[in-house]
Specification:
This protein is α/β, with parallel strands linked by helices. It has helices spanning 27-35, 77-86, 103-115, 141-155, 169-180, 224-237, 252-261, 270-275, 279-294, and strands spanning 5-7, 10-12, 16-18, 41-42, 59-62, 65-68, 94-98, 121-125, 159-163, 185-190, 194-198, 200-201, 206-207, 215-220, 242-246, 263-268. An 8-stranded parallel beta sheet has the order 3-16-15-10-9-8-7-4. The longest helix is centred in the last third of the chain and has 16 residues, at 279-294. The radius of gyration is 18 Å and the shape is globular. Bound molecules: the ligand O=C(O)c1[nH]c(=O)[nH]c(=O)c1I. The ligand O=C(O)c1[nH]c(=O)[nH]c(=O)c1I is lined by residues 21, 45, 68-72, 99, 125, 127-130, 192-193, 217.
Length: 309
């Protein structure tokens, strides 16, 4: 149909899904995603053991988006593996986000998930910005290379990566070259939040989240142009891979922008957190209206068709 999409040869009724971290920590949230009009769903990034995460308040919405320093709160990988074992893959595809605190933890989780022999799609999170003392992997190119080499060896089947935003053409070039050296990396999700921003409330003359003196990753309107640039930069540099767009989606228009930039699927974070799962019916309808108005009959016809001047 008009909104059909595919990734790794798997079919999706809609290109839309949640961004990992939103509406996906607990079974009830994942079931709400399953019942929604999203084409697929992804679990909260998981660690070997359950984590409470950072002290609250650790998420705040603003007029232009959101700021968070959650600190990787999750139920531990076995909780999400249980969900993946029970999931009905004929209903809609399921992604698992993995964000171990070390290379060894990631290998242990990937081994356990591999041994479960499930059709779940793995998105390896290389960009968690809020674990104090842990620099995010994708800003350390040697660490990223090592992680991808180990994950390719251990997982030994297609997977994807969740990337932070880059802001320098030389960094797009180097990161893409590393990803292109790992053929099992079949999709790239761009972007994670823009890390370590600071939101100030002038009434209280204060920061708005407790962890890290108020420093946190931002999402929403703040990040849309950066997200589109990262989607298009990796789409241009990685012709053998697919790109999942994430960042600044709140209407059909931004979904359409991500598709033009090269996205195969599109994730929704801040707007989902604020509006709830009903957003997917609205976004599907708004996207369909744009496609019909412009005479497109499939997402294929739009993907990567961004014109330059
Ligand atoms: O603080 C978090 O839990 C978090 N927050 C984000 O904005 N992105 C991430 O990948 C993660 I793992």
């Amino acid at each position: 149909s008009l909104l059909s999409a595919s990734l790794l040869g798997i079919d999706f009724a809609s290109p839309l899904m949640n961004a990992s971290g939103v509406c996906c920590r607990y079974n009830e949230e994942l079931d709400a995603m399953l019942a929604s009009d999203a084409g697929s769903l992804i679990t909260k990034s998981c660690t070997l053991l359950p984590r409470e995460g950072n002290p609250e308040p650790r998420y705040t919405a603003t007029a232009l988006g959101s700021i968070n320093s959650m600190g990787l709160p999750n139920e531990g990988y076995e909780y999400y593996l249980d969900y993946a074992v029970k999931h009905d893959y004929a209903k809609k595809p399921l992604f698992m986000s993995v964000a171990g605190l070390s290379l060894e933890d990631n290998m242990a989780m990937l081994t356990a998930i591999r041994e479960a022999k499930l059709p779940a799609i793995v998105e390896l999170n290389l960009s968690c910005p809020n674990v104090p003392g842990k620099p995010q992997i994708a800003y350390d190119f040697e660490a990223m290379e090592s992680m991808l080499e180990a994950a390719s060896r251990v997982w030994a089947q297609p997977f994807g990566v969740k990337m932070p935003p880059y802001f320098d053409i030389a960094h797009f070039d180097e990161a893409a070259a590393i990803l292109n050296r790992h053929p099992l990396v079949k999709f790239i999700t761009c972007i994670n939040s823009i890390g370590n921003a600071l939101v100030i409330d002038i009434e209280r003359e204060s920061v708005v989240i407790k962890p890290k003196d108020g420093f946190g990753g931002i999402g929403g309107d703040y990040v849309l142009p950066t997200a589109l640039a990262n989607v298009n930069a990796f789409f241009r540099r990685c012709p053998d891979k697919q790109v999942i767009g994430c960042g600044g989606v709140k209407s059909g228009a931004e979904v359409f922008m991500h598709l033009l930039a090269g996205a195969s699927l599109v994730q929704v974070g801040t707007a989902l957190q604020e509006e709830g799962c009903g957003i997917f019916a609205r976004l599907n309808a708004e996207l369909a209206e744009i496609l019909q108005r412009k005479g497109y009959r499939s997402l294929e016809e739009v993907r990567g068709k961004l014109r330059t001047l």
